[in-house]
Design brief:
Length: 152
Amino acid sequence: MVTLELTETAAMQNPELTMDILARLRLKDVNLSLDDFGTGFSSLTQLYHMPFNELKIDTSFVGDMGTNEDARAMVEGLIYLAHKLKMKTCAEGVEDEVTLRLLEQMRCDKAQGHLLGSAVRPTELESLIGRRNEEAAQREPPVAATGSAPVP
């Protein structure tokens, strides 16, 4: 249930040491996300060898998708590449519905941005999770004791 994010630049400063540490974390089932991908100096070879299971696409590409065909192509290519490497994708900087719809069409796995929710202080996190859990419980039909759910 834990995902550690490591920026592309930090991951590539000492690739051998990074690889050793990340491999040990993956053996412990810690999820690893390569953050800000596309803004640093990594090579595709290093991406291929590092044990990340999520690729976070930088907001500099995502934010321009609605108006820039090249940005759209870059994001689509990164999603395709990540999926081929059996990685999940997360797009950062989703600020409007157009961008969110484009990402859905491209089959991006997750999105972050002010459209979906703002950053919160740690002291507010518990109440936010509680509200979201209550909302989810109200939307989902209760499961019967037999393990089946009512048919709508």
